[in-house]
From TrEMBL:
PROSITE patterns recorded: ETS_DOMAIN_3, PNT
Name of the protein: ETS homologous factor
Source species taxonomy: Eukaryota, Metazoa, Chordata, Craniata, Vertebrata
GO cellular component, one term: nucleus
InterPro entries found in the cross-reference section: Ets_dom, ETS_fam, Pointed_dom, SAM/pointed_sf, WH-like_DNA-bd_sf, WH_DNA-bd_sf
Recorded family membership: Belongs to the ETS family.
Gene Ontology MF annotations: DNA-binding transcription factor activity, RNA polymerase II-specific; sequence-specific DNA binding
Domain of life: Eukaryota
Domain ETS: 156-238
Amino acid sequence: ETSEYRYRMSIMSSSPLESSLTSSWDSSNPYPDIHTVMFGYSGRLLPYESQPQFWSKYQVWDWVQQIMDMHQIDTSSIPLQNFDMDGHQLCSLSYQDFLLAAGSVGPILFNSLSELKWSGNPGSVKSLFVVTEMCEPCLHPVLPVASHTPSNQRGIHLWEFIRDILIDPERNPGLIKWEDRREGVFRFLKSEAVAQLWGKKKNNSSMTYEKLSRAMRYYYKREILERVDGRRLVYKFGRNARGWREVEK
DNA sequence: CGTTGCTTTCCTGTTT
DNA sequence: TAAACAGGAAAGCAAC
């Protein structure tokens, strides 16, 4: 497994991906550890680790955003809703489909996907072993998703929506990151993307971080959130926020 | 129908 | 300077 590991690392180190990842991971830490470089945010598995046709729709989003980052394109310049699909659907898109979905960015995404289709790692037993060894969520399994994704209850609250993205790193496409897991401190990495996703949930295509953050500020009074001063895009769960701790119930 | 809770929208001003 | 932060004010809306 050592050779495969070195192979992976050499790919990662020589690509623009590394700088893209480390800069958005934590600007205060110039020396990201192996875990960070290999798995990115929240210990999640990078979509590059498997074949695109098997990506979840969250991994598709992740891929789109990382390609945009690599090309220094603002994520908000294309409607991410157009990529609300899983890897299988993504792989069946034509060049024309990409043009329609992403305009001038379409060809970039199309070419990137074409490359991945050819060089995609089949996902061997060894790579799965490495993932199991290093993936934090595997060592500390989160509570069943069903208890947090209300199928019977209508109308999810914003803070629950944020929490559910955070506690399920597998599905968190680098949108929000824990700053201090135990204390419940977290930071928005892609504020506008989170707003779009929230808007999608509420069937509101005009949602922005500006408006989302106003709702977040209302949570301070209700002690669902606590203030974190001087740190942009950073929030902290308060005493009235439930279901975010690692050991809770 | 009216109330209530939770936003959503808009705004002006301040801070980073 | 752009992006966030702060809140007041008021509208929207679904549940009750």
